[in-house]
Amino acid sequence: MQRYFITVRYFIEFSYNGRNYFGYQIQPNAVSVQEEMEKALSTILREEIKTTGAGRTDTGVHAKKIFAHFDTEKLLDQDLPRRLNSFLPPDISVKRIFQVKDDFHARFDATYRTYEYYISLEKNPFTEDSAWQHWRRPLDINPMNEACKILFEYEDFTSFAKLHTDNKTNLCKIYKAEWEQGGSELKFTVSANRFLRNMVRAIVGTMVEIGAGKLKPEDLRTVIENKNRNSAGTSAPAHGLYLVDVGYDFDLNFKDSGF
Description:
The chain is 22% helix and 25% strand. It has 259 residues and is α+β, with helices and mostly antiparallel strands.
């Protein structure tokens, strides 16, 4: 009797501290989050599992909330997230796993992504690995927030894109960009339909020059219109950057109550 196997697609919601990884995506001769996730899943499910992430973060960048999908013919049990966390390193944590429609894609079906960047305005040994220590020169967030408004006027962010990548377009639509100060810490929140490689760190580096008085807010227009990476500021350190949310239309693609 011939047996038929049905492949099911699952989404994983997870987070990670990127300090020990060369980003999410698998790379030759480098440790990645994707490699650790696929190794753990393949071990537990006893089959080769390949995952597709919502994006590829840069080396050292963290993710508070990110998704990936994978396919399997096996019926998964509710204990899988706990078992998966037992196999994964301490710096990767799975929150939930749930079934979606078979063509729902973690990368291409994302409607927005949101990042946060943290800057410490005082020397703080407890945030040395989680925020940019920028205490030698004061920053004024008022002109930095003025510059944020200018970002909404543009969609071509070539000046903030990493050179020599395989991007087919440098067009992005920014939905939110703002700086907030809480005590001695600054937080930059930016949300867009998509981001270019190194884009957020390049924007932050340029904004810091504005906050330090090296550039005026209106100079950001010239930086963007030049469409030249050399016009923008130096990239901010990776360890201050966090992917905090990825948006999807789950109402149309959700098929299970999850684990």
